[in-house]
Design brief:
With about 575 residues, the protein is α+β, with helices and mostly antiparallel strands. The protein is built from 17 helices and 23 strands. The strands form six sheets. It has an eight-stranded mixed β-sheet with strand order 4-3-7-1-8-11-2-12, sandwiched between helices. A four-stranded antiparallel β-sheet has the order 13-14-15-16, with helices on one face. It has a four-stranded antiparallel β-sheet with strand order 20-19-22-23. Helix 8 packs parallel to helix 12.
Length: about 575
Amino acid sequence: MRRYLTVLYLLLFLSAKSQANRPNIVFILTDDHRYDGLGYFGNPLARTPALDAIARSGTVFLNAFASTPICSASRASIFSGLQERTHRYGFQTDAILPAYMDSAWPVMLRRAGYRTAFFGKFGVKYPDMDKQFDVHEDYDRNNKYNDRRGYFFKTIGTDTVHLTRYTGQQGVDFINSQMGDKPFCLQLAFSAPHAHDGAPDQYFSQPEFDTMFRYVVVPRPPMSEDAYFNEQPAAVRAGFNRLRWTWRFDEPDKYQRMMKAYYRMIAEVDREVGRVREALRARGLDRNTVIIFLGDNGYFLGERGLADKWLMYEPSIRVPLVIHDPRQRRHREELSMVLNTDVSATILDIAGVERPASYHGQSLKPMVEGKRLSVDRDTVLIEHLWVFDQIPASEGIRTAGWKYFRYVDDQSLEFLFDLTADLEEKVNLAGDVRYASQLAAMRAGFERHALKYRDDRSGGPLRLSTQMDRLPEGAVAQAPRPIFEWSLSTNVGKQRGYQMLVSSSRALLDRNIGDLWDTREVRSAQHEQIGYMGKPLARGRTYFWKVRVWDGANRTRDYAESVAFRVE
């Protein structure tokens, strides 16, 4: 018995010692924070001494990208470690499917004995945050108000404070509550520097920051000449990227005011990061706490006459990513292409937790430790698949030297850039016959990656069929009218909507061009007896059609395989 107790106490001691040696993790996520929005990169508008200090003592990833440049899908990817093409979560969908969150990194950390906490903008509809976090508070801008109250509605004591200040204090309070009995992972998800959309002033800072940049004149954005805007597809020129440019940047004085306010909000985040680091030092936790800093997507600040994100250009997809591990005592700059999906695998690796096989991302810990010089990838898949008329969906791939992308609803709109010679992406080579083989190679590379990350819950409708409208006996049809039907796979649930395309050629349909009929999004469960309502069809000709549906969770599924029909 005595020997048994001795062994038991030894095991408990070793377990406690092992647990005590596991590092704490602080994960800081900002919203709409440009890749160059740190003073570390030489940006004179970025007043970020705390973040710069983390960068100078940590690993800076110079080519970090959001796999989807929009907050909702990006955050779903950050939690799940999956590409948008797999999880299909976005603003239009219901809650993210539990299958994609059951192995999210906070769940895995809790199972491994970490205390987990979250404060700020979660950004993903998910009803079971208690499964992920021991302590949590989910909040974002208050859209009930189109003024400063959107950011000033939380209180510390009796004082109404800015959301940035509130989130920072939540982090400090959590750190001060630690008793040292187990390691912790704290995520702070700042709403800043996201604009308060709809408000005339857009960006709101705290009064003590109002004088920052008072005597500064902000330079005009690069590529702001009309020519760069005019070469955009019609859907982009008429969409939200341009509308929000008119909210923020269409007049010189407005541009000055908005730019300064945007960077004031970044400075406010930096101050809270400094307070969090001071709290760690005061508790003696700083030498065993890894800090990860990431922006959720890129951001246009007037380039090409555009604002916000969503598109495949570099300002929209590139993000800041810094990892500070105080145990390494080294500073590194890494050139490998890394993704937001890598953060989940990295957090688990830092904590000594096995990475789920479902994750698409790779751990960056070996690079932080100097054990590897790069990740095992030469191509990244970038996509924005939300079906929304004001933001045309697009998809593509990027390598170290090339970028290819296209617009989903008209795949003839293709773009090819030689990033070695043209990092600003000024010259589209897709129409240049000298680069035809490169275009074909990049197009094929995209198709391989799209197929790789497609999952069984994204499949399209089945068994498409076409018949001609049956008229009463003796009646003569003035114009042929086909009737369309399809079946649903078992995992679709109730169909929430559909979009049909009818084309005059298979080549057009393969590029998602319904030149004869494009229903756009139809909110309906109907999938039988749908009569043709497009342009007139000619007898004796063969036409082609396909359909995609919105499933029971309101996720957009893939298009079905195209089907030919002949009009007699």
